[in-house]
């Protein structure tokens, strides 16, 4: 039996070969068929907090700038122009100005202008009359005073203070430009963009269909005639569809290690790759209500975790232990190993940690004769349910009896955003491997995605300090200090960072899987079928 590590090396080698498109010239035509893991709540990327929205709808849109879609590890050095032709910072690093393309049309034929850029960010910053129903990334733009225009083809972001990470935030798959002339309500059901594909239809729980945009501003692209997503929540059923030839590609970064082995045994020609995906599986606790307003109970939870057991059960050992920022080598901001292991609960002696946890629970009034009864809420898809079941089993060891409470995808973000839960098993996908995105979005006081109500004004000052720091090494040390403090405060206990698989048929050419920001999505604009 080949080891999992050997399998990973083999599939990575196949991937490297698959991305060399010199085997033939790109061909136009064909429909790319992908299964989708669940039914998104809407088609509006700006109102969503899940990759389930990005994957099918990102090909409709364009950004001002975007990370190079064929470099797996995103960084500031891989940012490329898209709706912008160029950009420049002012001498005081407080104004970022974009020169815009003049040859871009919205899918309904109206011209794209700087007004659309201003409208998009006015809505994101909560400054316009039209409002998003949910605005999970508003915290990204706290340092932006306003967006101003100079004619139809120039837009400037005027900042309160320097924020070097702003360009990376704008390059994320979560930062498309929306049209001024289309309402947020329409964008939820019939989105209009400037991207390589146009929206055709979205049938909830059934399918999503896109068609080639013949007026795309990148001439000659896309190669595909369209993309069709079939919604199949059951992973095993979906994989059977892939190996039987019903689908050309799996849902990106959704194939577990055991299922990937099944794919390779049943369909040896399939191209599969395993990558870290900058998604942490974590515990969210409603710290504003009993019983988790008690710091002792929160600390006991963190001490009860056997992180290696999660990784072994779910990924056959292929996963990573870390803090908030993605672990190295894929992540660029990870704490050093010795610093991580100094945090309570991260040490290797699990039984010692749990003994300490039981003492904290007894201090809070619980013990062998009085267990804490709770529900563990989680989203009703396998990547959430599976670790939730392991969590429920592990916390039995510290006098907590939990019942699983599964929630449909469309209801998950609204439910936890309004704090309608006690304890949850959550996956946090980071749209950018940058501390500004992770810290402000998930831990800033008042952020919509701060599901736990964690609020530490002293730490927030450090958020600002690292954000304004232009020296990369000084910034890293600040980031490590913040990340360590977040774990010690039990702000959102990180269980593990996943590595997951993506598979496609060998005739699907020019695919890349991102390794440190899979939530940036993928446009499929230069993917082609060699059939």
TrEMBL record:
- Which GO molecular function entries does the Swiss-Prot or TrEMBL record give? peptide transmembrane transporter activity
Going by the UniProt record, its keywords in alphabetical order are: Signal
Q: Which GO terms describe its biological process?
A: peptide transport
Q: Which residues form the Solute-binding protein family domain?
A: 79-447
Protein localization: Periplasm
What InterPro entries is this protein classified in? Peptide/Ni-bd, SBP_5, SBP_5_CS, SBP_5_dom
**Domain of life, per the record?**
Bacteria
Signal sequence annotation: 1-23
Recorded GO CC terms: ATP-binding cassette (ABC) transporter complex; outer membrane-bounded periplasmic space
Pfam families assigned to the protein according to its UniProt record, in alphabetical order: SBP_bac_5
> Main location per UniProt?
periplasm
Question: Belongs to which family?
Answer: Belongs to the bacterial solute-binding protein 5 family.
Q: What is this protein called?
A: Peptide ABC transporter substrate-binding protein
Q: What is the native source organism of this protein? A: Bradyrhizobium macuxiense
């Amino acid at each position: 039996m080949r080891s999992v590590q050997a399998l990973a090396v083999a599939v990575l080698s196949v991937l490297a070969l698959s991305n060399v498109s010199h085997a033939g010239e790109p061909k136009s035509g064909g429909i790319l068929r992908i299964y989708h893991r669940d039914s998104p709540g809407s088609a509006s990327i700006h109102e969503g907090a899940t990759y389930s929205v990005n994957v099918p709808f990102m090909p409709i849109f364009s950004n001002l700038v975007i990370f190079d879609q064929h470099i797996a590890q995103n960084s500031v050095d891989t940012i490329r122009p898209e709706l912008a032709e160029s950009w420049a910072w002012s001498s005081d690093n407080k104004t970022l100005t974009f020169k815009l393309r003049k040859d871009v049309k919205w899918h309904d034929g109206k011209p794209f202008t700087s007004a659309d850029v201003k409208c998009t960010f006015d809505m994101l910053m909560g400054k316009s009359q039209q409002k998003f129903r949910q605005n999970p990334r508003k915290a990204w733009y706290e340092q932006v005073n306003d967006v101003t225009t100079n004619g139809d083809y120039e837009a400037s972001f005027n900042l309160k203070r320097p924020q070097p990470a702003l360009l990376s935030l704008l390059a994320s798959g979560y930062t498309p430009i929306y049209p001024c002339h289309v309402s947020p309500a329409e964008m939820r059901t019939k989105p209009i963009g400037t991207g390589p594909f146009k929206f055709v239809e979205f049938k909830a729980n059934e399918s999503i269909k896109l068609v080639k945009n013949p007026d795309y501003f990148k001439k000659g692209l896309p190669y595909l005639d369209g993309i069709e997503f079939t919604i199949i929540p059951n992973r095993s059923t979906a994989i059977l569809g892939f190996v039987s030839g019903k689908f050309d590609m799996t849902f990106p970064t959704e194939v577990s290690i055991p299922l990937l082995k099944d794919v390779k045994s049943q369909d040896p020609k399939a191209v599969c790759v395993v990558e870290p995906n900058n998604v942490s599986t974590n515990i969210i606790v409603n710290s504003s209500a009993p019983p988790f307003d008690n710091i002792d109970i929160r600390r006991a939870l963190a001490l009860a975790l056997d992180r290696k057991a999660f990784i072994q059960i779910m990924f056959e050992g292929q996963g990573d232990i870390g803090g908030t920022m993605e672990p190295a080598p894929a992540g660029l901001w990870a704490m050093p190993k010795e610093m991580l292991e100094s945090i309570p609960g991260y040490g290797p002696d699990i039984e010692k940690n749990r003994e300490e946890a039981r003492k904290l629970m007894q201090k809070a009034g619980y013990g062998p004769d009085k267990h804490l009864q709770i529900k563990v809420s989680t989203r009703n898809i396998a990547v959430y349910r599976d670790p939730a079941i392991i969590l429920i089993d592990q916390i039995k060891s510290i006098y907590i009896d939990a019942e699983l409470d599964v929630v449909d995808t469309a209801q998950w973000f609204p439910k936890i955003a309004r704090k309608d839960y006690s304890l949850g098993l959550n996956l946090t996908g980071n749209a950018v491997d940058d501390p500004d995105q992770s810290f402000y979005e998930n831990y800033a006081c008042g952020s919509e995605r701060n599901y736990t109500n964690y609020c530490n004004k002293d730490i927030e000052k450090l958020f600002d300090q690292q954000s304004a720091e232009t020296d990369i090494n000084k910034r890293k040390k600040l980031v490590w200090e913040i990340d360590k403090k977040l774990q010690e405060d039990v702000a959102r206990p990180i269980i593990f960072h996943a590595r997951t698989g993506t598979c496609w048929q060998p005739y699907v050419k020019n695919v890349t899987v991102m390794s440190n920001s899979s939530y940036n999505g993928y446009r499929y604009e230069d993917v082609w079928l060699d059939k």
